[in-house]
Write a structure and sequence with these properties.
372 residues, 14-stranded mixed sheet, globular
């Protein structure tokens, strides 16, 4: 018999976070999160997203053993301000048992109906800075810290339970040797003169902070046209600064300013922490920090996490300045491979930016939707 229990206590939430550790304990490709950070994400007193959203967490039990989990999320910035009556779900993992996945999804669907929502979509997180999509290709590739990994059978469960594909994403990579400076070296000098813009690089994290709020404002403006976008609020900015920027090498953050020192473009690259996180196995102590700090300093693989350019400067070659800055940084650090985060398949503009580097898709993922 399968039973669904809401995870409300600290013990239950820790079990919620740790379930994938058991499910994927034999996987070479799954990358574990840091348990403490996951718990803080779900903590209403620490994560400011709960000022504008609510979430409930559920565990599925079979013969007293946890066999699945799911979160039910309502983002009121999306529902009330944008009028998108979406019931979100995420952190959805389960054994290969159709009854387990069905009962978990039905739990979310019922919550959506109770709130008068029109449809449910997932897997997604609280906002655009969270993980997104169920993997549909690329199961034999090492995941990243910013994506969910899952077994191949997940997709069949969505199909059987009446879910349809909503959004499609691709993950790609390219060797740094593909980057030819002639594609942007001369162009960036021309762009600097024509539009009176300049690149700004950093060597210390504290140098980044005065620009961080402006970066999130630019992020909001850059991505606001996407159908899946939910804005980052002022209080969330503080949270994300603490959560993300400490993980990022300051020299991997690049800003573009206009003649009035207005931020018009930015990019964030992160070291690829996948192997370090596997070694840490969810814990920062006693040795997890060591593995992560070593990767931060020495990783020869990087992930392009975010890139944003003010709409009026898009298609004007501003990205050439960004790539020129990274070329010099990556050359000095001996970077070998560049990865890109999941990007919408229909985002033609972003594909144009990367075309000269000949990226190869190695994984795909999708979100699924069902009318309520």
């Amino acid at each position: 018999m399968i039973t669904i229990k809401e995870a409300t206590s600290k013990k239950d939430l820790k079990a919620f976070v740790k379930f994938p550790f058991e499910l994927y304990k034999d996987s070479k490709y799954w990358v574990p999160p840091i348990i403490k950070q996951e718990l803080e994400t779900f903590n209403k007193d620490k994560n400011p997203i709960f000022n504008d959203a609510e979430a409930r967490f559920f565990l599925a039990y079979k013969d007293s053993k946890i066999v699945g989990r799911i979160s039910a999320i309502i983002n009121y910035l999306e529902v009330d301000k944008k009028g998108i009556k979406k019931m979100r779900f995420g952190w959805f993992d389960f054994i290969d048992d159709l009854d387990v996945s069905r009962l978990l999804l039905e739990t979310v669907e019922n919550i959506g109906r109770e709130h008068g929502l029109s449809y449910t979509e997932g897997p997604v997180g609280f906002s655009n800075l969270d993980k997104v999509g169920v993997m549909t290709e690329g199961f034999d590739h090492l995941a990243t810290m910013i994506t969910w990994y899952n077994n191949a059978y997940y997709v069949n469960h969505y199909n059987v339970h009446g879910y349809k594909i909503e959004k499609e994403y691709a993950e790609s990579r390219f060797p740094f040797s593909n980057v030819k400076p002639e594609f942007f070296k001369k162009a960036q000098e021309l762009i600097k003169r024509r539009y009176q813009v300049k690149a700004l690089s950093f060597t210390k994290t504290e140098e980044v902070m005065p620009y961080a709020d402006r970066m999130f404002d630019l992020f909001n403006e850059t991505y606001s046209s996407l159908s899946s976008f939910v804005e980052i609020t002022d209080i969330q900015k503080e949270y994300f600064k603490k959560k993300f920027i400490s993980f990022i090498n300051p020299e991997y953050i690049k800003f573009i300013l206009d003649k009035d020192d207005k931020l018009i473009g930015f990019a964030i690259v992160m070291p690829r922490f996948a192997q370090a996180l596997q070694k840490a196995n969810g814990k920062l102590f006693p040795f997890g920090f060591t593995h992560i700090l070593k990767a931060k300093k020495n990783s020869k693989e990087v992930i392009f996490y975010l890139i944003g350019i003010l709409p009026e400067y898009q298609n004007k070659g501003v990205h050439a300045l960004i790539f020129n800055e990274y070329y010099e940084t990556f050359t000095a650090k001996g970077i070998e491979t560049c990865y890109r985060t999941p990007e919408l398949e229909d985002n033609v503009a972003i594909k144009q930016i990367w075309k000269h580097f000949d990226p190869k898709i190695y994984a795909r993922r999708k979100t699924f939707v069902k009318d309520l």
